[in-house]
Amino acid sequence: MIEDATTKVSAPPLTATPTRHRRYALTMLFLIYMLNFVDRQIVNILAEPIKRELGLADWQLGSLTGLSFALFYAALALPIARWAERANRARIVALSAIIWSLFTALCGIAQNFAQLFLARVGVGVGEAGCTPASQSLITDYTSREKRASALAFFSMGIPAGSLVGMMVGGLIADQLGWRASFALVGVPGIILGLLAFFTLPEPRKSAFAAKEVQTTPPLRDALRELGRNRTYICLTIAMVAMSFGTYSNLGFLGSHYLRNHAEGLVTLAAAVNDLTGLQLGATGFLGTALGLIIGIFGAAGTWLGGWVTDRAVRRNLNAYATIPAVAALCMPFALLATYLTSNTLAALCLLSLPMMLQSIYYGPIFATVQSLVRPRSRATATAIFLFFANLIGLGLGPLSVGLLSDFLAPSLGSGDAIRWALISTAVVFIVAATAFLAARKSIHQDIVS
């Protein structure tokens, strides 16, 4: 029998997960999510060499970093999540990692835009099974009091993956070309996926498998539950806006610096080479610099958001929304300072601030979504949540920036065109902050698990 959405319920019986197994599982899911973002974001540092070899426009680059990935990712996430409510979530995550890694490797043999677009679609198809099932698993591994921290640790895969993707992609591209970068980064995901398939624990008791299938609510009931949840709707709007701004900026960071700071990058690369004996080119240096900045400060923001939120919600549940709202309100100022600075070193240093601010919301928002629905609807809630975030935020964000850059280029030049196209994304962070603040009004009565 389907209970009213406002009724507080307990999770189905789960096997006791030993601490060592829980730590192993969280570490494994973090590593898989990291590779998720390595394969998703590596195209960003390779955008300029791809653009030159294949003769692409900025709107095509935007579609490769966003739309191609988001189309099938968004379409498949919900049916896979419904499957995850009933099936072995650990194996779904493992198979997803193997599939997206194979398609990442195939990107390296693409001969034109259409082939590369289709290969990126394949990456999105594989990655559609990762996040909803992973977050559902993590929620079963941990208590609500530690949920934001656990999901923040998982979400640190985003900056860590961006670090590895940017750094490794740039270094390999410098030495072997962009095609080799795709081919080589696909291999670890296949290996890790196979390891996870055989070793990642599923905390549901097998003895309760039949009962769990029966108690999983039909999709229409899950949708009705979510549609009545004001907090869930507000957070979905916030997530869409944050994703739009975040993915737009990540998609064209490499292009912005290579177009507007080309001489400065060559000078900095030469200085690093003199000090270290390396032979970095501009792309290799930029990939390393961006990877370190995104990875270190993105991870710091993700950890900080989860850590502060877990402590603040002991006093007031509003902290789940207040903390990300403050970070979102600061984003426009951080972006303006970064993109309007003419000094290359200063522009790279200032980038650390928006990278940290845009990562603070991961732990709080995912922990809230997992707490807004009954246990048997968690993967579905995450999938619907990410459907809109990826279709609109990831799918249209980079594409919109690319189109605006192409529109401005004849009058401003390619460098200033991409600069102002990126600055225009500041407005969506205001939208996100407004939605976060609106969620504060209903969060107390909407949390059910």
From TrEMBL:
All residue ranges annotated as the Major facilitator superfamily (MFS) profile domain in the record: 25-444
Intracellular or extracellular location(s): Membrane
Pfam families found in the cross-reference section: MFS_1
Gene Ontology CC terms: membrane
Keywords: Membrane, Transmembrane, Transmembrane helix, Transport
Membrane topology summary: Multi-pass membrane protein
Domain of life where this protein originates: Bacteria
Protein name: Major facilitator family transporter
Organism: Tistrella mobilis (strain KA081020-065)
Organism lineage string: Bacteria, Pseudomonadati, Pseudomonadota, Alphaproteobacteria, Geminicoccales
